[in-house]
């Protein structure tokens, strides 16, 4: 780009909140990137000098210098000695940088990640970190990487108490909407034009069981084995209970598998968490009684994964489509568009039912 193409210096009208958890230089970076994203700043636009911007905002020159250097190192701005800093041409050939922040690794999350990575292919660089449902880790990763990644793809699974949820919203609001995709859970109180693909924990189980309502009615009672390790077990239990009430099906809930609840002719729905210990205990107990899954009693499990095609000659499941979730999140990035998508939830019938 020749110097004659540079446009005059603009007042940026930036603001820095001293009490914010986001460092001042990162606030400058975020606002400049936001202005580029919405078209307020275009290729060739000159930025104020370091001294001018420091005086305009009322902060130190070192803070502005750090922000400008970071933007330059990431190809957002260029600089010419004796001229100053200006908005760079878009880096057409630079791969997008994507940070996946996942709560916990599991077969389900691996399915999601694989679908996401396969769809992205070699068109982006993907890094994966686990926040392990810890607010402090989410806060750390956002603060550390807010100015580096082009996209943040996050599964926002954290304790559901109001205090924790308020903290999560505060942290996520630091990410520009154009960089954010939420997966696997919808955050009703997070406003803005960000991407989201989610499952509905309050309604999906009802929908998933509906195709076999008549068969469950004939069985008389649905035995629901609840894993309290799942954050959303209360919501899924309510969904199943409503389904049973509306269809005249008996409902029996248990929080652990014991020999007395395992009986011939019964149907069991496992509302499992990350580890299928309940399935292992159920089958082990049944076999001790000489009962064969799919023949002497039937099993349905919540959440599907490829291994379920093999378990017990095929484990029947009701589940969100995690491959779809990963693919559609990747498509949003590749197409540079934000969508709100309710993920498909379906019954997959196999040998155990």
Describe the SSE topology:
Elements lengths: L6 E3 L14 H14 L7 E2 L3 H8 L3 H13 L3 E4 L3 E4 L8 E7 L4 H14 L3 E7 L4 H11 L5 E4 L7 H11 L7 E5 L10 E4 L5 H6 L3 H7 L1 E6 L6 H15 L2 E5 L12 E5 L5 H12 L9 E5 L13 E5 L1 H13 L5 E3 L2 E4 L5
Parallel strand pairs: 1-2, 5-6, 5-7, 7-8, 8-9, 9-15, 10-11, 10-12, 12-13, 13-14
Antiparallel strand pairs: 3-4, 14-16
Mean pLDDT: 90
Order of helices and strands: EHEHHEEEHEHEHEEHHEHEEHEEHEE
Secondary-structure-derived class? alpha/beta
Count up the helices.
Answer: 11
N-to-C CA distance: 67 Å
Low-confidence stretches: none
Roughly what fraction of the amino acids lie in strands? Answer: 15-25%
- Which strand order does the major sheet show? 6-5-7-8-9-15
Helix content: 25-40%
For the secondary structure, the number of strands is: 16
Shape: elongated
What composes the largest sheet?
6 strands, parallel
Radius of gyration: 26 Å
Oligomer: single chain
Question: What's the short version?
Answer:
This protein is of the alpha/beta class and 353 residues long. The chain is built from eleven helices and 16 strands. A six-stranded parallel beta sheet has the order 6-5-7-8-9-15, with helices on both faces.
Overview of the molecule:
The chain is of the alpha/beta class. It is 35% helix and 21% strand. The protein has a 6-stranded parallel sheet with strand order 6-5-7-8-9-15, sandwiched between helices. Strands 11-10-12-13-14-16 form a 6-stranded mixed sheet. The chain has a two-stranded parallel ribbon with strand order 1-2. Strand 5 (96-102), helix 4 (107-120) and strand 6 form a beta-alpha-beta unit. The protein is elongated, with a radius of gyration of 26 Å.
